[in-house]
Amino acid sequence: MVEKNLDFRSDTTTWPSPEMREAAAKAQVGDMGYGEDPSVNELERVAAEIFGKEAAIFCTSGTQGNAVSMLAHTDRGDSFICEARAHLLTTERGHWSVIGSLIPKPVPGVEGFLPPDAVIPAIGRPRGAGPRTSLLCMENTHLSSGGTPLTPEQMKATYDVAKEHGLGVHTDGARIFNASVALGIKVSELAKYSDTIQACLSKGLAAPVGSMVVGSEELIAEARFYRSLLGGGMRQAGIIAAPGVIALTKMVDRLAEDHANAKVLAEGLQRLGIDLRLPLKTNMLFIDYSGIGWKGEDWSEACAKLGWKSRGGPTGTRLVVHYGMEREDIDAFLEGLAKLV
């Protein structure tokens, strides 16, 4: 039975499944610093295999995973290209600047997609007056576009132009499994078009801690060095790695339930006069309740009365559907909300 977790704020609020809790309690452990934790080693093996890459590294968070990946691709003073509203640009405390002395070159995209003709003008010349551009970063799904999945064709187009100009390619795939499920393809089909990928275990996949970075043996070796530099070298980490194996092997397919429940929620809210600011693509709704005369406090108070957590913005907010919410919960929420509108 699923433990109820009625929290719309984010899929970062997911709780580990009973099987994950059991796996953590029974995990085989060793010293990760010596490469001797069997649970960590298994997690990294499974991740590399699923993505079709040579190697993988277990990181404490998505931000750390993006940071070690970007550092592995670049030298100090380099520039990198990313979409203008990319999460790693706007929300990750500028690790690329503080740690790597990297210079961002934001490029406005189309629902997160970076068209080749928009990328080319942003590429700095290797020996020009400006900084060398050594890295291009994609984001899949693209959070600021409403959780939009990039297709393999879109990723290939961006990847190809980056490679034509000698750039490394990293994908912030915090929710890349949502993308693969929404597109109905294996995640390895998306991974073809990136040298490194960071994928969160602790969002929709519901593990308690961590993210994976996958890539070539050479790039992952560099990432391991930078993980240590950032204090990410753990010891008996099998206790948190074991749930990650469950996340990758047993929690991916169920993301389709989240997407279906998000659609039910979206349709129900629209019937009540609450609009969507962005088209629904995966498990995220960006809603606008100003049309029913509500403000943020009205939304937050209504959710609290119904037993849900949600942060109301001035005219709207983001709702994220995830593990711990079932169809019956969405139906009950909509029924209760209808009485309050």
Task: Give structural notes.
Helices cover 40% and strands 14% of the residues. The two termini are 32 Å apart. It is globular, with a radius of gyration of 20 Å. The longest helix is centred in the last third of the chain and has 17 residues, at 255-271. It has 2 domains: 18-250, Aspartate Aminotransferase, domain 2, CATH 3.40.640.10; 254-338, Alpha-Beta Complex (Aspartate Aminotransferase, domain 1). It is an alpha/beta fold and 341 residues long. The protein contains 14 helices and 10 strands. β8 (275-276) and β9 (284-288) form a beta hairpin. α2 runs parallel beside α11, α3 crosses α10 and α12 runs parallel beside α14.
The outline comes out as globular
> Which strand order does the major sheet show?
1-7-6-5-4-2-3
- Structural category: alpha/beta
Cα distance, first to last residue?
A: 32 Å
Determine the strand fraction and express it as a percent band. Answer: 5-15%
H and E string: HHEHEHHEHEHEHHEEHHHEEHEH
Which architecture name of the largest domain does CATH use?
3-Layer(aba) Sandwich
Largest sheet: 7 strands, mixed
The overall average pLDDT, rounded, is: 97
The amount of helix comes to 40-55%
The CATH topology label of the largest domain is Aspartate Aminotransferase, domain 2
Uncertain residue segments: none
> Count of DSSP E strands?
10
| Helix segment tally | 14
The total tally of domains equals: 2
CATH class of the largest domain: Alpha Beta
If you compute it from the alpha carbons, what radius of gyration comes out, rounded to the nearest whole angstrom?
Answer: 20 Å
User: Which homologous superfamily in CATH is the superfamily of the largest domain?
Assistant: Type I PLP-dependent aspartate aminotransferase-like (Major domain)
